[in-house]
Design a protein that fits this description.
Distance between the termini: 47 Å
Strand order of the largest sheet: 1-2-3
Largest sheet: 3 strands, antiparallel
């Protein structure tokens, strides 16, 4: 079932009664523009499911580590 898009990369989930936002690399880096990038990675990971009715699927992720600049 597709979620309702409310903005670019932002969706509403009625089942969770919450919003889900998928960040782009540019968004993450702009949020930490005053930081020196120590480590940045993005990718996907297989999730084999959450119970008997769930199918295997992938989750995307971003890992960011930065150091605040003086």
């Amino acid at each position: 079932k597709l979620l309702e898009a409310v903005e670019e990369n932002t969706f509403y989930s009625p089942r969770r009664d919450s919003f889900i936002h998928y960040f782009t690399r540019e968004e993450v880096l702009s949020l930490f523009s005053g930081f020196k990038i120590i480590y940045y990675a993005e990718g996907t990971a297989l999730d084999v499911g959450h119970g008997e009715h769930s199918k295997p699927h992938y989750h995307g992720f971003i890992v960011y580590m930065g150091q605040k600049c003086d």
